């Protein structure tokens, strides 16, 4: 398309969110003349989302920042099936009570990124709303659904989608239950268009086939023109998956990941990713980002601190970001221990391998032993080479480190 005219499309392109769009020119024109309600679906497979979902959350934030309406769709219905897209095997099916608990927990995250309207009152056109697709999917009757919706889907075409083809090419099982997921997601889009005037679905690049299905279903069943946008796969400069660390997923909820660890994840960003992550995950102006990413040598660390502060403040609050930054300063610049470091309480002497696992620095005792053997473990700043070493908590917290970037405290308890 030629240069975007709407604030929405221009902002998404400038900040690097766009991988594919259906009829970009028509969407640009629509966003220029009216408020566009747009949605992203999130299946509640855990009590918290992690950093891998943050691009999608930020997409909804950008939608609202440009005057449009975000719709957060919780997959209370589709979560009972699980999205098979680019998965090697079926997800573990969750009980209904577990799904409801996860939905309630995840809702708290979105209130930090989006502005929701007052309950039961008419708010602004751009106020975010949160819906659950169980509201309509649980009420579907099988035969009527097949007759009304199923006729619009070609099995031949569904089999050609990369998300399905990958599983079949590897001769990995794809259940009929999972195969239905793309139909239900398409139906969600059509239902949201009918109920809430939704005109846009957004998602990761692995959702392109599902989104196109929804666009075509709305057109075939109702003659409604709706649109889709996908984001590029976010990987780090070294080819790693965004949000994966030595200690596991980077959770957005503080009850699953301490503030300091969240801040430190952003602080540890590769030099080559700083500018891109500032555009995607902060609200800093583009000219300020250009200045920060142009820094070289040791000065790039200042840009990383800005990234860590801004990303943490958005997700955890400004106070949490400031506390984490101060803890990092004291830990790395003064050699002191900060209150925000992850903590492990022990009543007496404990093996160092156990402490490394308990602090989340290693996934297993075997991994902890390898870390010690390779010279990556320190107690009180001193390297420990004995895999059988124990640590005894005293009156003062003991700092335990894994490599140069991961630090925690052993305390008496």
TrEMBL record:
Catalytic activity: tRNA(Tyr) + L-tyrosine + ATP = L-tyrosyl-tRNA(Tyr) + AMP + diphosphate + H(+)
InterPro entries cross-referenced by the UniProt entry: aa-tRNA-synth_Ic (IPR002305), Rossmann-like_a/b/a_fold (IPR014729), S4_RNA-bd (IPR002942), S4_RNA-bd_sf (IPR036986), Tyr-tRNA-ligase (IPR002307), Tyr-tRNA-ligase_bac-type (IPR024088), Tyr-tRNA-ligase_bac_1 (IPR024107)
SUPFAM superfamilies attached to this UniProt entry: Alpha-L RNA-binding motif, Nucleotidylyl transferase
PROSITE patterns recorded: S4 (PS50889)
Keyword Heme appears in the UniProt entry: no
CDD domains assigned to the protein according to its UniProt record, in alphabetical order: S4 (cd00165), TyrRS_core (cd00805)
Position of sequence motif 'HIGH' region: 44-53
Keywords: Aminoacyl-tRNA synthetase, ATP-binding, Cytoplasm, Ligase, Nucleotide-binding, Protein biosynthesis, RNA-binding
A GO term, aspect molecular function: RNA binding
Sequence ranges assigned to domain RNA-binding S4 in this UniProt record: 351-396
The family this protein is said to belong to: Belongs to the class-I aminoacyl-tRNA synthetase family. TyrS type 1 subfamily.
Designated name of the protein: Tyrosine--tRNA ligase
Annotated source species: Sphingomonas lycopersici
Name of the gene encoding the protein in the UniProt record: tyrS
């Amino acid at each position: 398309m030629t240069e975007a005219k709407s604030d929405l499309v221009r902002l998404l392109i400038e900040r690097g969110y766009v991988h594919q769009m259906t009829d970009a020119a028509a969407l640009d024109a629509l966003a220029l003349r009216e408020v566009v309600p747009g949605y992203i679906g999130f299946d509640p497979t855990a009590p918290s989302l992690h950093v891998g979902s943050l691009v999608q959350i930020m997409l909804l934030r950008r939608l609202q920042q440009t005057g449009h309406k975000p719709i957060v769709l919780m997959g209370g219905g589709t979560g009972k099936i699980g999205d098979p897209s680019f998965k090697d095997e079926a997800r573990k099916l969750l009980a209904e009570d577990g799904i409801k608990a996860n939905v309630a927990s995840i809702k708290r995250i979105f209130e930090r990124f989006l502005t929701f309207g007052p309950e039961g009152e008419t708010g602004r056109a751009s106020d975010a709303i949160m819906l659950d697709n169980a509201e309509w999917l649980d009420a579907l009757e099988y035969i009527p659904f097949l007759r009304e919706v199923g006729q619009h889907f070609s099995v031949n075409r569904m089999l050609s989608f990369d998300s399905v083809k990958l599983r079949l090419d590897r001769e990995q099982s794809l259940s009929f239950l999972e195969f239905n997921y793309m139909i239900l997601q398409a139906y969600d889009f059509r239902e949201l268009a009918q109920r809430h005037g939704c005109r846009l679905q957004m998602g990761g690049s692995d959702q392109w086939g599902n989104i196109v299905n929804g666009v075509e279903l709305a057109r075939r069943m109702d003659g409604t023109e709706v649109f889709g946008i996908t984001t590029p796969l976010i990987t780090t400069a070294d080819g790693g998956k965004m949000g994966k660390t030595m200690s596991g997923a980077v959770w957005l909820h503080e009850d699953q990941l301490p503030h300091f660890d969240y801040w430190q994840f952003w602080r540890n960003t590769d030099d080559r990713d700083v500018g891109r992550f500032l555009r995607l995950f902060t609200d800093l102006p583009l000219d300020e980002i250009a200045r920060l990413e142009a820094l070289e040598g040791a000065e790039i660390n200042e840009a990383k601190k800005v990234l860590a502060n801004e990303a943490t403040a958005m997700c955890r609050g400004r106070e949490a970001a400031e506390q984490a930054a101060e803890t990092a300063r004291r830990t790395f610049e003064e050699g002191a221990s900060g209150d925000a470091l992850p903590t492990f309480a022990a009543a007496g002497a404990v093996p160092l391998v156990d402490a490394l696992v308990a602090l989340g620095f290693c996934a297993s005792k075997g991994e902890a032993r390898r870390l010690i053997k390779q010279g990556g473990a320190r107690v009180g700043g001193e390297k420990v080479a004995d895999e059988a070493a124990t640590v005894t908590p005293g009156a003062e917290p003991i700092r335990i480190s894994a490599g140069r970037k991961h630090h925690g405290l052993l305390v008496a308890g």
